[in-house]
Structure formats: structure tokens, C-alpha cells
Automatic annotation (TrEMBL):
It is an enzyme of class 4 (lyase). This is Phosphogluconate dehydratase. [4Fe-4S] cluster binds at residues 156, 223. The keyword Endoplasmic reticulum does not apply. InterPro entries: 6-phosphgluc_deHydtase, Dihydro-acid_dehy_C, DiOHA_6PGluconate_deHydtase_CS, ILV_EDD_C, ILV_EDD_N, IlvD/EDD_N. It comes from the Bacteria. Gene3D superfamilies: IlvD/EDD C-terminal domain-like. One of its GO terms (molecular function) is phosphogluconate dehydratase activity. Keywords: 4Fe-4S, Carbohydrate metabolism, Gluconate utilization, Iron, Iron-sulfur, Lyase, Metal-binding. The gene is edd. Binds 1 [4Fe-4S] cluster.
């Protein structure tokens, strides 16, 4: 089935908007393809440095330039559950490459930080910019120009977007992303959230809270809720950067290893030395980006990707906007209910049919561009499968199930959970903002209440603990944008505002910061742009001003006389304390260079 006309029209306007920057980008990568990573063009000294640590066989192969060389970019560390499984991947990849007649080298490592560890801590103010650091770190690894293709080992929040930016910057190379998979199911996410609320209310102690958290986050793999990490995996598959069915297989299983070996061999097959050359910069185009946005809406994915997708697209010369994302949300149905949009976790989603079922439903209903290129070949139809372990440790694939294994978790396109996606852009006299609606009950999507202004989340938490929050209000937490403090996630507010909402209050959040990819039931206008430090109207709000947030209408306004509001001076804030300690002083340049949230919040400047 051809793609629906609304989606075709949005794609066409992205193509037209991006025409000049995309053409410039493609010209650059075509020139790089023509030059090629031919190792025999390196001086003897260059080449000797490049394979000095290799064994005799690999040295001979690389010296002769007869075989493809695969560059491994890894985000391995053994503190973070999602990235710990990558410890064994380089050896597995090198073995698989040798079996396929190629060579693999670890080209470089990139940092991988965990927002779950740094929530509410000073390190969280480095989180967003770690995406750009990751992209630059990967670029350093690939800059040796020894490689015919690259594989990227990454899972979590900023890591995959950073790696994608790097892959597209080196768009003349084929790129395959290899995931580690989610941890097995532990304590249900709703039970974890219940204990968090009890702790916030002082009804249980730290020991009970830590026990619940440890039972939830209990082993190797990604956290099982549907936050940014698992949204990343969905994106990589629906955009064709994973091999089919790779996203949600648990770590340290025979099938996970088989998929890794297969991805390695596939990366070698699509180099310029073979007949299926697939440079990632040509493979990923405007249709691929639109497919990613559609997947985000259909699954109720992370709000963080309203920033990351714009930055990722820009790396390929493609100009994606918040309005594109919002307009696609208006026409794409919600097909998945995974926590915080439901009670299930990603293992339940996978068991219900997972990515194969989801992609098949979206394709058959005309919501996805089918005629895209992927690392697996032409067309997205080959991703409508379930992966299984075959004979001798190989991967076999069968067609995705015709019927969902659990209609409460994964719905067919003919009977969606709601007719629109889970994200919306808000506009009004406070600027533009993003709201995630998929977990917010319809009756809570409109709120009109007095503002209470805070300059960080600790101020709000202190007011809660002091018993000061007893009536309806809209919390305005400002000076949290990328230029101010690196745009941290304000996840600690989720529990407090959830408690107040459960007590019967009407509450909402308006902030120029971010919320967690797991943001949920409280209406939150986030990523407010322009931010307070950049002269945004949010810096003029005073406690007591009436704010109206209407998620259905897509509006965010302060209800005050326009002239009076414009005449107010912009409030300033001393941010010195947030610019030092825990490495934050090293990021002063990135804060100064950061683009607005609706332009991707990148410190690289305008890439398109």
C-alpha cells in the first residue's frame, strides 16, 4: 500500500525545505566515497600505525587491501546495565568478521552516562551535551580512515542519537547499529512508581525504596520501561539501521549473540568492496526520518526525541521541525501501551508481537514509507518478522503474527488505543513547547490555574515537603534550558506532581528543561522555547499569573494583558553554582553555543 497522502505531503515539504542542504550533504559524502578508505593510499608509516597491534593474518590482509575492515565504535562500560553486555561484543564481532573473510578493529570508545543515576544530581546537567561529545568521540575513532564500514554499539538515552549523528557525518560509510537488548522483567513499573510516591509522602523509608528500585533495575540490559533508551531501539529498527528483529532480544542469550554475528557479516556485505554498497548517508533520507517520527508516535515514545530527531536529521542535511513532528502526530494512531503509557514493559511488548507486528500494521495501513533503503536491503517489508534461533546458532525469521499476542499492549491499526500519536507542539504567548499526551488522561489535558514559579526542581520539592502546595497550580520551573544549565531532565518532579494530582489537585508543569523519557500522567509543557536565559517570555511569568495549558487545542498561554506582559522586565538568575563542579565548568563553551531546543539543542551550530 502506498503511504497516506497526509504523510506524503509532510514528507514532501521536508524534502523541499531540505533541498539545498541535502544536496550539499550528498555531494560531500559522494566525494568521500570517491576518495575511499583505501588503505594502500596511506603512507607506510600511517598504515603500520594502523595495524601494529593486529595479528599476522590481519596485518597481511590489511596491507594488501583485499578485504573489508570493520570499525567498531563501542559505548561499553560495566557500571551501566544497558552497556555492560557490550564487553564481549568486540571479540564476537572480530570472530564473525574473520569467518566472513573480513577484519574488525575497535576504532574507538565513547562515553555513556545514565540519566537514571544522575537524575536530580549535578551530573544531569552534562547529560544532553553528552550526545554531542559522543558524536565527536565517534568521529575521532573513525577519522583514521582505515574502515570500509562501521558498527555502532549503543543503547541508551544520548548514546544512540550521538552515534547516529556520527554515523551520518561519516555518511560515506555503511553503518549497522547493534543493540544489547532489555533486561528481563523485574518488579512491575507501576509498583515501582507506587513505592516512589509512598516514599515522597514519607510513608515508607529509604530501605523500602531501595529494595523496590533494585528489584526493578536488577540485571544487564536496558531498563524495561518505554523511555528514551527503548525508544532509541524502536527508532533504529523502524529506520532500518538494525537488522530485522534485533531491538528487544534480552542480553546474554544465544539469539542475541546470533543477531550480533549476523549484523557483523551484513556490515561487511554492504561495503564498497561488494555488490550491495549501502552508504548510510544515502540510505537514510527524508522518508526514513519520517518513518522514525511515525514510530515514535505509534508507540508513545520519548519526548527527548523531539530534540534528538531534529539533530539527527540535520546531520544528514535534512531539516525536520517540531511542526512536522506535531502534524504527523495528528494523523498517526497510538498502537502500543507500554509503561508509562500502560502497565506493560518492553518484554511484554516484544512478546505481544513487538516491532514486526507494529511495522506490519503501520505499513498495511499506509502510515510508513515502505520503499526505503535499509541495512537489510530495499524496502521495510522485510522487517515485518519475528526472529528466532535457528540451526547451528543462526538467525531464522518467520512472518509477524497476524493477531496481537496481547491487545492491551499492542493494538492493530484498525483498533488503535487512540487515533492520534502521543506528542503535541504547544504554541502561545509563552513561546513553543512539547507535551506528551499519551499517558495523560483526556480530562487532565486542559488546565487553567495560577502559576507558582521555581528556579529549579529542588525549590518545588522543598515547597512540597513544607506542605505549601495545597491548591491547584501550574509549576513554572525555569532557567533549565540548554544555554542556562544544559537542559537537565527534571524527573524528580514526576513523583511529587503525581502525588498532588492523586490528592485531587489540578497540577501541570511548564519548563524550559526536559522531563524523563518516562514522563507520564501529569500534563507537562516542556522544552519551552525560547528558554528563560535566551530572553524567552517564560522569564516574565510571576507567581499568581493565570496560565492556560490546552493539550488538545495545542496552546500554552499566560492570561494577562499583552502590553502589560510585554512591559515586564525579564527576570535574571545567578547560575554560577550550576556552572562549576562535577565537570560542568568544562561545558561552558557548549552552553554558549547551544541551539534552541526546537533546533536540536546542539552545540555544533547549524549542521544543515
Amino acid at each position: 500500500m502506498t503511504v497516506r497522502h497526509e504523510i506524503a505531503a509532510i514528507t514532501a515539504r521536508i524534502v523541499e525545505r531540505s533541498r539545498s542542504t541535502r544536496e550539499e550533504y550528498l555531494a560531500r559524502i559522494d566525494a568521500a566515497i570517491d576518495r575511499g578508505p583505501h588503505r594502500t593510499t596511506l603512507s607506510c608509516g600511517n598504515l603500520a600505525h594502523g595495524f601494529a597491534a593486529c595479528g599476522p593474518v590481519d596485518k597481511a590482509l590489511l596491507a594488501a587491501d583485499r578485504v573489508p575492515n570493520l570499525g567498531i565504535i563501542t559505548s561499553y562500560n560495566d557500571m551501566l546495565s544497558a552497556h555492560q553486555p557490550f564487553e564481549t561484543y568486540p571479540a564476537l564481532i572480530k570472530q564473525a568478521a574473520a569467518e566472513a573473510g573480513g577484519v574488525a578493529q575497535v576504532a574507538g570508545g565513547v562515553p555513556a552516562m545514565c540519566d537514571g543515576v544522575t537524575q536530580g544530581m549535578p551530573g544531569m546537567e552534562l547529560s544532553l551535551f553528552s550526545r554531542d561529545v559522543i558524536a565527536m568521540s565517534a568521529a575521532i575513532g573513525l577519522s583514521h580512515n582505515m574502515f570500509d564500514a562501521a558498527v555502532f554499539l549503543g543503547v541508551c538515552d544520548k548514546i544512540v542519537p550521538g552515534l547516529t549523528i556520527a554515523a551520518l557525518t561519516f555518511g560515506h560509510l555503511p553503518a549497522v547499529f547493534i543493540p544489547a537488548g532489555p533486561m528481563t522483567t523485574g518488579l512491575p513499573n507501576d509498583e515501582k512508581a507506587r513505592v516512589r510516591q509512598l516514599y515522597a509522602e514519607g510513608k515508607v523509608g529509604r530501605a523500602e525504596l531501595l529494595e523496590a528500585e533494585s528489584k526493578s533495575y536488577h540485571g544487564p540490559g536496558t531498563c524495561t520501561f518505554y523511555g528514551t533508551a527503548n525508544s532509541n531501539q524502536m527508532l533504529m529498527e523502524i529506520m532500518g539501521l538494525h537488522t530485522p528483529g534485533a531491538s528487544f532480544i534480552n542480553p546474554n542469550t544465544p539469539l542475541r549473540d546470533a543477531l550480533t554475528r549476523e549484523a557483523t557479516k551484513r556490515a561487511l556485505e554492504i561495503t564498497a568492496l561488494g555488490n550491495q554498497f549501502t552508504p548510510v548517508g544515502r540510505m537514510i533520507d527524508e522518508r526514513s526520518i519520517v518513518n522514525g517520527v511515525i514510530g515514535l508516535h505509534a508507540t508513545g515514545g520519548s519526548t527527548n526525541h523531539t530534540i534528538h530527531l531534529i539533530a539527527m536529521a540535520a546531520a544528514a542535511g535534512i531539516k525536520l521541525t517540531w511542526q512536522d513532528i506535531s502534524d504527523l502526530s495528528d494523523v498517526v494512531p497510538l498502537l502500543a501501551r507500554v509503561y508509562p503509557n500502560g502497565l506493560a514493559d518492553v518484554n511484554h511488548f516484544h512478546a505481544a508481537g513487538g516491532m514486526g507486528f507494529l511495522i506490519r500494521e503501520l505499513l498495511d495501513a499506509g502510515y510508513l514509507h515502505e520503499d526505503v533503503r535499509t541495512v537489510w536491503g530495499e524496502g521495510l517489508r522485510s522487517y515485518t518478522i519475528e526472529p528466532h534461533l535457528g540451526d547451528e546458532g543462526t538467525v531464522t525469521r518467520i512472518p509477524a503474527a497476524a493477531v496481537s499476542g496481547d491487545a492491551k499492549v499492542l493494538a492493530p491499526a484498525s483498533a488503535p488505543f487512540q487515533l492520534t500519536g502521543g506528542l503535541k507542539v504547544l504554541h502561545g504567548n509563552l513561546g513553543a513547547a512539547i507535551i506528551k499526551t499519551s499517558a495523560v488522561k483526556p480530562e487532565r489535558r486542559l488546565i487553567e490555574a495560577p502559576a507558582r514559579v521555581f528556579h529549579d526542581q529542588e525549590e518545588l520539592n522543598a515547597a512540597f515537603k513544607a506542605g505549601e502546595l495545597t491548591s491547584d497550580f501550574v509549576a513554572v520551573v525555569r532557567f533549565q534550558g540548554p544555554k542556562a544549565v544544559g537542559m537537565p531532565e527534571l524527573h524528580r518532579l514526576t513523583t511529587v506532581l503525581g502525588v498532588l494530582q492523586d490528592r485531587g489537585l489540578k497540577v501541570a508543569l511548564v519548563t524550559d528543561g526536559r522531563m524523563s523519557g518516562a514522563s507520564g500522567k501529569v500534563p507537562a509543557a516542556i522544552h519551552v522555547t525560547p528558554e528563560a536565559l535566551d530572553g524567552g517570555p517564560i522569564a516574565r511569568i510571576q507567581t499568581g499569573d493565570i496560565i492556560r495549558l490546552d493539550a488538545d487545542a495545542g496552546t500554552l498561554e499566560v492570561l494577562i494583558n499583552e502590553a502589560e506582559f510585554a512591559s515586564r522586565p525579564l527576570v535574571t538568575q545567578d547560575l554560577t553554582a550550576s556552572h562549576h563542579g562535577m565537570g560542568r565548568e568544562l561545558f561552558a563553551g557548549m552552553r554558549a553555543l547551544a541551539l534552541r531546543a526546537d533546533a536540536g539543542a546542539s552545540a555544533f551550530g547549524e549542521m544543515t
